[in-house]
Amino acid sequence: xxxxxxxxxxxxxxxxLLLVFLxxxxxxxxxxxxxxTLANKQAEYEGKSDYYQKISDLILQIENxxxxxxxxxxxxxxxxxIAPLTYFFExxxxxxxxxxxxxxxxxxxxxxxxxxxxxxxxxVTISGTYQGLRNFIVxxxxxxxxxxxxxxxxSPVEGLNLRTQSQLKQYDMKLExxxxxY
Length: 182
Prior knowledge:
Elements: H1 5-64, H2 66-75, H3 82-95, E1 99-110, E2 118-128, H4 130-142, E3 147-156, E4 171-181
Antiparallel strand pairs: 1-2, 2-4, 3-4
């Protein structure tokens, strides 16, 4: 039996083409699709990695600036609490030689721009010398908390109008102070 070489070559070539299209091409496409999926996953991973690295850097910056954030928190606390305000006013008044007679708190409102900042009006009645009042106001201005002094009124204390070397003129003073919180 004689084999026809051109016919057998064509048949072998067709069989090889069929095998390539049936087995190799699908595996190649599957491999190509896996490479594309891998590239997408790597890009997604790198993006998330960069995102988490930026968050980590921001947390580190916040921790490094903790004292500044504490100052901001002291200047603009997250809520109104009357006890710390009362203590602050009494401590500073006593430190500067004036006595606190009374407190009144009123007018808790939101800011005009509705930015979440609330205002509270505090009326403090104190008694002491003009120099003590001046030092008390300076201590309010230098404090970390934000205070806006709206009005100050003075009235002399009756019966203590004589001025001697050891005793200065005494006044009853009324301060209207606005403070803020968010």
